[in-house]
Write a structure and sequence with these properties.
Distance between the termini: 13 Å
Shape: globular
Helix content: 25-40%
Largest sheet: 6 strands, parallel
Oligomer: single chain
Strand content: 15-25%
Order of helices and strands: EHEHEHEHEEH
Length: 185
């Protein structure tokens, strides 16, 4: 089972989250999580279309997704939307910003609407909000994984709780995708 993780990362923090999401995906037997960094330039649309699920990730800049991720969304019209290449695939999302809140919810809503326009099935985080900075879902989001990074290198931030929440999301998506795969068999 392939679960593509399509993401943009301006300073490495969102990439670090993408790597955690991938680790979570790979906790499920038989699941692989190819990373699709938009900063790399070209996108392998066929590989994404062949995925069982797609997890989208973008930093939150000025209360919304990055310009590069928005360009990917626009480019997907001919490649995926018109042929309905992602229809009925499981989808999810994650985001990161410098502020604890930072209007991250708007970024996740944007990603969820994008997935809905492609006919995808959105998977959120099914965790209660953490009561401390050490617990999963410390930011208290349900639409997707949210993280906060200090103004420091990606080697230092985001913190362990946010990375663990991202991994949890990846594992959850892989489990949901596996349920759908069993249902089709």
């Amino acid at each position: 089972m392939n679960i593509s993780i399509v993401f943009d990362s301006g300073y490495g923090h969102t990439e670090k989250l993408a790597q955690s999401v991938a680790r979570g995906v790979e906790e499920v037997a038989g699941a692989q999580a190819p990373l699709v960094p938009l900063a790399a330039g070209s996108v392998d649309w066929a590989a994404i279309a062949a995925s069982d699920a797609i997890i989208f990730g973008s930093p939150t800049y000025n209360g919304t997704i990055s310009a590069r991720f928005k360009q990917f969304m626009e480019d997907s019209t001919r490649q995926a939307w018109i042929p309905q290449a992602w229809r009925n695939k499981v989808a999810a999302g994650f985001t990161n910003s410098g502020a604890l809140h930072g209007d991250k919810l708007n970024s996740l809503v944007t990603l969820a609407l994008f997935a809905a326009q492609h006919g995808m099935l959105w998977t959120g985080v099914d965790l209660f909000p953490g009561k401390s900075g050490d617990e999963l879902n410390r930011i208290g989001g349900w639409l997707g994984a949210m993280a906060q990074s200090d103004d420091a290198p990606a080697e230092i931030t985001p913190g362990a709780s946010d990375l663990a929440t991202a991994a949890y999301l990846g594992k959850r998506v892989a489990e949901v995708a596996a349920q759908f795969a069993r249902g089709r068999a």
